[in-house]
Write a structure and sequence with these properties.
Shape: elongated
Strand content: 25-35%
CATH topology of the largest domain: BirA Bifunctional Protein, domain 2
CATH superfamily of the largest domain: Bira Bifunctional Protein, Domain 2
Structural class: alpha+beta
Largest sheet: 7 strands, mixed
Order of helices and strands: HHHEEHEHEEHEEEEHHHEEEEE
Helix content: 25-40%
Strand order of the largest sheet: 3-4-5-9-8-7-6
Number of strands: 14
CATH architecture of the largest domain: 2-Layer Sandwich
Oligomer: single chain
Number of domains: 3
Distance between the termini: 51 Å
CATH class of the largest domain: Alpha Beta
């Protein structure tokens, strides 16, 4: 189907005869593929007698050559999939099979995209960015401290470079625009974190999606904010460049070098919040993060730090 989509992605009309000739198949085979595209990928195709077939909206498909054209400097090896269960899961599989890190896994869609705390990440075809960077980490836990927060800063700067305003961070792993979620970050680790391990930096960004009935929280997208279609290949190249820079700084100096700038970007700094873990709720005032990336909460006048992948931060109703 991807070959046919590449022919149709310009949003213009193409005759069944021309499509069949380009693919080396019959017009009937083209028709069957078009039906699969509509049913499997939820794309709308206009069919007009005498003119042919046209995608209702032009597609910007991921392409390694296009990413390379936008890139500045060295690139990570990139694996692009039409459809996959999860880019994070594929990154872990490739690492287990001996693929040398760092490397990047991208997909046009995910059938089982993963968010934090077991949530599903909604992943429509060719609209958003599903991005997993796999790193080999040596030297123990210090290399992992505050890593997801550093990724959040890199994502925030990438969005700002595309003209998005009012972008900020929510501890620990969300990027928001005008209070609405635009990015989720999920780190997964395999191996010995005290010695040598692989960590997958999973990043999901709402890029060109304008509607979804499946998301149960306030959200937005890059296209919704700036009013134009975003080239996802350009976004991949820019995000990778930002990550290369910030990860190198993190390896050299640790998270303490990012602490102040992360707090400046934290949208709920000084706000009354609730820290939730399962059925347990802790109320306090968000005072920032510590040198390891843990949340600093002021509770009844006493400051305490909290960290952990199952924690969720919410604004208090009375704030």
């Amino acid at each position: 189907m991807l070959k046919l989509l590449n022919l149709l992605k310009d949003g213009r009309f193409h005759s069944g005869e021309a499509l069949g000739a380009a693919l080396g198949v019959s017009r009937s085979a083209v028709w069957k593929q078009l039906q699969h595209i509509e049913s499997d990928l939820n794309l709308t195709i206009h069919k007009v007698r005498g003119r042919g077939y046209q995608l209702s909206t032009p597609l910007n498909l991921l392409d390694s050559a296009a990413i390379a054209e936008f890139a500045l400097g060295d690139q990570w090896p990139v694996f692009i999939h039409e459809s996959i269960d999860s880019t994070n899961a594929e990154g872990l599989r490739l690492a287990a099979d001996g693929q040398a890190a760092p490397f990047l896994v991208l997909a046009e869609r995910q059938s089982a995209g993963r968010g934090r705390r077991g949530r599903q990440w909604i992943s429509p075809f060719a609209e958003n960015l599903y991005y997993s960077l796999v790193l080999r980490v040596e030297g123990g836990m210090r290399q992992l401290e505050g890593l997801s927060l550093v990724v959040g800063l890199a994502v925030m700067r990438s969005l700002q470079a595309f003209g998005l305003k009012d972008v900020g961070l929510k501890w620990p792993n969300d990027v928001l625009v005008n209070g609405r979620k635009i990015t989720g970050i999920l780190l997964e680790l395999v191996g010995d974190p005290a010695d040598v391990c692989h960590v997958v930096l999973g990043i999901g960004i709402n890029v060109n999606m304008l509607s979804s009935e499946q998301i149960d929280q306030q959200w937005t997208s890059m296209r919704g904010e700036v009013g134009r279609v975003i080239d996802r290949n350009h976004l991949v190249a820019l995000l990778s460049q930002q990550l290369q820079h910030e990860l190198a700084r993190h390896r050299r100096y640790g998270f303490a070098a990012f602490q102040e700038e992360w707090e400046q970007a934290h949208l709920w700094q000084g706000q009354k919040v609730s820290l939730v873990a399962g059925t347990t709720r802790i109320d306090g005032i968000a005072r920032g993060v510590d040198g390891q990336g843990g949340l600093r909460l002021e509770i009844d006048g006493v400051e305490k730090s909290f960290s952990g992948g199952e924690l969720s931060l919410r604004l208090r109703n009375d704030s």
